[in-house]
Write a structure and sequence with these properties.
This protein is an alpha+beta fold and about 350 residues long. It is built from ten helices and 14 strands. Helix content is about 40%, strand content about 15%. The N and C termini lie far apart (about 70 Å). The structure holds zinc ion (ZN).
Length: about 350
């Protein structure tokens, strides 16, 4: 029996029958954006995620915090609904998806179908809600897929987090746990939308508004209305100037910056609410390159504070950075949000 409801002819050829639409199980319009469905899944999660999927202004739906969240708090941990190893090409991925969708439970399939499928409706490959199941499944997958180390996967709840050029949350891949984590990286108020940054921080993510908007329009087909993109007047000028300065420093090469410039660079990254994973990369780079004991100690503490926020206390990453910080003979803690050491 063909799980998608098409007709299987004797030769084994599968043909979709328009009268027997395999997508008819999709959530009806009385659950716009699939909010009710997603929230019922969130409520069933043992970790009791402090967020819900709700309609948000200017967008379809978004993830909203149920209470104030501190940097480092785990918001959602989710196992992949679909996992695609890096070695598979696009065609093999399509076949795998067909198989996986066929094995899904009713709820899993409903969740999958409620995902948006509109990365680029103008693209010639876009077939939307076609009864051609493989292409439609692939289209949904590629619209919502996330990287999982070298591989890719689909985490339907996490895929509800919208983009902001000034994010307050970030995905942390925990292959060791078989999970994808969404963690708060800056304070999030109750009722505030939980947002991640879709861009690479060292590339478009660091750029000014014009370049970011162009990138997001081209890749994701939306007009960004985030807090950074809607700044006006003096505040916009200040942010654009800061970003130009950061790009110039990055282009010179972090290895060529003086210690003071590194401090300015890091402080600037916190000001624009850069992803912690990028700030961590910078800290690790300058830590490994530094030969001066005092700065190594400071970078060591900074690195330890960042991995504690991203991976949690007790993680192997924290142990490694504890050793790094300790070997420099210093055990003061850093107030990461101020980018300074607390004595
Ligand atoms: Zn933006």
């Amino acid at each position: 029996m063909n799980p998608f409801g098409g007709v299987v002819h004797q030769g084994g050829v599968v043909e979709g029958d328009p009268e027997d639409d395999p997508w008819k199980g999709a959530p009806p319009d009385l659950d716009p954006g699939g909010c009710r469905l997603y929230n019922s899944v969130l409520e069933m999660m043992p970790s009791k995620p402090p967020c819900r999927i709700l309609p948000v202004a200017g967008r379809d739906v978004g993830m909203v915090a149920l209470r104030r969240l501190q940097p480092g708090e785990l918001i959602v941990e989710e196992a992949a609904l679909v996992y695609v190893p890096d070695r598979l090409d696009r065609e093999a991925t399509g076949r795998l998806l067909e198989e996986v969708v066929g094995r899904m439970t009713r709820v899993q399939r409903d969740v999958f179908l409620a995902l948006t499928d509109c990365r680029n409706p103008g693209h010639p490959d876009y077939l939307g809600r076609s009864h051609h199941t493989t292409i439609s499944a692939s289209s949904r997958f590629f619209t919502n897929a996330m990287s999982y180390g070298e591989d890719a996967g689909l985490w339907p709840i996490l895929a509800r987090a919208n983009h902001s050029c000034r994010p307050n949350a970030e995905f942390v891949t925990r292959k060791d746990l078989g999970l994808q984590h969404l963690r708060a990286i800056y304070p999030i108020e109750e009722g505030e939308e939980v947002e991640i940054n879709y861009m690479l921080m060292e590339q478009e993510g660091l750029e000014g508004r014009e370049a970011r908007q162009e990138y997001l329009r081209g890749c994701y087909d939306f007009e960004c209305i985030c807090r950074a993109c809607t700044l006006k007047g003096g505040k916009l000028e200040a942010e654009e100037g800061l970003r130009r300065g950061l790009v110039a420093m990055k282009d010179r090469g972090l290895g060529r910056l003086t210690e003071q410039e590194v401090q300015v660079y890091l402080a600037g990254l916190y000001t624009i609410q850069a992803k912690l994973s990028y700030i961590f990369e910078v800290v690790e780079e300058v830590f490994l390159a530094s030969t001066e004991a005092a700065s190594r100690a400071e970078y060591g503490r900074h690195g330890r504070a960042l991995v504690a926020l991203m991976y949690g206390e007790g993680s192997p990453q924290v142990q490694l950075w504890e050793e790094r910080a300790r070997s420099e003979g210093c055990d003061a803690i850093i107030d990461w949000s101020e980018g300074r050491v607390v004595e």
